[in-house]
Design goal:
This protein has 239 residues and is an alpha/beta fold. 26% of the residues lie in helices and 33% in strands. The strands form three sheets. A six-stranded antiparallel sheet has the order 6-3-8-1-2-7, with no helix packed on it. It has a five-stranded parallel sheet with strand order 11-10-9-12-13, sandwiched between helices. The radius of gyration is 18 Å and the shape is globular.
Length: 239
């Protein structure tokens, strides 16, 4: 057990506040632990300090999140939905005290921007756009090697996360869509399919991924041009 915990390379991060994004969507912010570095598109595991028990890790006290911030924003952030009937884990998130420490580990990235002068299409479901926020901000700062980016976010509630911020990006090679239905989503995807040799990055529930991947394949998109936020072994099961 000790060796397993050491392999996780656990670091401590101090909670410094939260932003309300929509009625049930919140961004939590932490100080960046000394020595921690990440690239846009990175995800990590976040656990409460009592995650480690004598009997082993308590899996109810840990979750995986995408990092929604860039390093130069000087905080480590993630965005998540918190509903009235939320889990014990999310209830405890809402009770975090200023400077309270949490544990972070398994910092990894499956969503790095491919800079091959090709169009890129981001397709996200709900709060899944948190994965794409730093990638979009990275592109807005340095578009080199990317022909264009189209971001499509679907949320049936129409309470869209980061809408004002992303809408304000002024770049002729960036297009942003927020939609409330699958019909709208597929209509915009159809327009994107006209782009030559585009790359499609997808984030959402497993069911959402399977349906969008199936649609793209039916329209002759090569599986090698579809990127999902899964490790290579799990990605093969979807692609």
């Amino acid at each position: 057990m000790v060796k397993e915990l050491e392999a996780l390379k656990i670091q401590k991060a101090k909670y410094i506040g939260k932003n309300i994004e929509t009625d049930d969507t919140i961004t939590f912010k932490f100080e960046i632990p000394e020595g921690l570095s990440w690239k846009a598109g990175t995800h990590f595991h976040l656990a409460f300090s009592d995650f480690i028990k004598d009997s082993g890790p308590d899996k109810s006290l840990v979750r995986a999140f995408s990092i929604m911030s860039l390093e130069d924003e000087r905080f480590l952030g993630f965005t998540t939905r918190i509903k009235k009937d939320c889990s014990k884990y999310k209830k405890r998130l809402m009770e975090l005290q200023n400077r309270e420490e949490m544990l972070i580990f398994k910092v990894d990235n499956n969503m790095t921007l491919i800079t091959e002068n090709r169009p890129i299409v981001f397709i996200s479901m709900g709060v899944g756009i948190a994965t794409f926020r730093p990638l979009i901000k990275q592109f807005s700062k340095n578009p080199e090697g990317i022909e264009s980016i189209t971001s499509i976010n679907i949320d049936s509630s129409r309470e869209f996360v980061y809408k004002d911020e992303i809408d304000s990006i002024n770049n002729e090679n960036f297009t942003n869509y927020y939609v409330g239905s699958r019909a709208e989503l597929y209509e915009i995807i159809d327009n994107c399919l006209l782009k030559n040799n585009a790359l499609y990055y997808l984030v959402g529930s497993d069911d959402f991924l399977r349906k969008v991947i199936s649609y793209l394949k039916e329209h002759l998109v090569d599986k090698n041009n579809i990127i999902i936020d899964k490790n290579p072994t799990n990605a093969k099961l979807f692609l």
